[in-house]
Write a structure and sequence with these properties.
alpha/beta, Protocatechuate 4,5-dioxygenase, Chain B
Length: 278
């Protein structure tokens, strides 16, 4: 049977993609940040999964205000990098895994989660930047995108996201082929891009969130939208996507493989975790 072997968690700041694409990772402002992912690249090279399910949010590239799905599962065979206004990133297309995606859809819908199934969509920096940070220039396996609406209210609760992650984990573990699956949660950490609190970074909250994500995720499920926005900024709501990835791990006490935190990257706090189920 398939299994969830690890969870990978990382911010998906678009400026990181630009620095990678322009060869500026060794420049003084960027070098300490990218150094935090050197271990991750070595780890992934030794723990290449058969499939990655990557939880991210679209930034009005695949979906606009005409269509706002709460949870959109990519069930297609291929997803192209999106043109985000200055051309698509020079990265490979994402190859999907339709059989596992269809199984996850079937299982989760029968567990009363109404997923939107998407056979064709472009994927933006929310998905491609995490892959670039951890994988380098090529994607080592098929990737199933799961886009979560954290842009247009109402957005899903932390409790709902953790529960969906657990439903996804059950779905993966009921898939008969013997697949090694990693589930990645992206976005965050604390940041606010506009308004009177633009530039907000709350490092104390970020570290506490990572502590509890590792050991006490059920506590995080009780965080309200108001608390998330107050403590982590308007865009800090993206952290609910980390809870989906954590919920997919059927492991109360996963092994912490790597932890990294850096501020600032652009005007954002960058957090990164790797947890293994063994």
């Amino acid at each position: 049977m398939a299994r969830v072997s690890a969870g990978v968690y990382t911010s998906h700041v678009p400026a990181l993609g630009a620095a990678l694409d322009q060869g500026r990772t060794a420049d003084a402002p960027w070098a300490p940040l990218f150094a935090g992912y050197e271990f991750s690249r070595r780890w992934l090279a030794e723990h290449v999964p058969d499939v990655i399910l990557l939880v991210y949010n679209d930034h009005a590239n695949a979906f606009g205000l005409d269509l706002v799905p709460t949870f959109a599962l990519g069930t297609g065979s291929r997803f192209e990098p999106a043109d985000e206004g200055w051309g698509a990133r020079p990265v490979p297309a994402v190859i999907g895994h339709p059989p596992l995606a269809a199984h996850i859809a079937q299982s989760c819908i029968l567990q009363d989660f109404d997923l939107t199934l998407v056979n064709r969509m472009d994927v933006d920096h929310g998905l491609t930047v995490p892959l670039s940070l951890v994988c380098g220039d090529a994607w080592p396996c098929p990737v199933i995108p799961l886009a979560v609406n954290v842009i247009q209210y109402p957005v899903p609760s932390a409790r709902r996201c953790l529960a969906l992650g657990r439903a996804i984990g059950r779905a993966i573990r009921s898939f008969e082929p013997d697949l090694n699956v990693q589930v990645w949660g992206t976005g965050g950490m604390s940041h606010q891009l506009s308004g009177q609190r633009a530039g907000l970074i709350n490092s104390a909250f970020d570290h506490d969130f990572m502590d509890r994500l590792i050991a006490r995720p059920d506590e995080l499920a009780e965080i309200s939208h108001v608390e998330l926005v107050r403590e982590a900024g308007s865009e800090g709501i993206e952290l609910v996507m980390w809870l989906i990835a954590r919920g997919a791990m059927d492991c109360q006490s996963p092994r912490l493989v790597h932890r990294f935190y850096h501020v600032p990257a652009s005007n954002t706090a960058v957090g990164h975790l790797i947890l293994q189920a063994d």
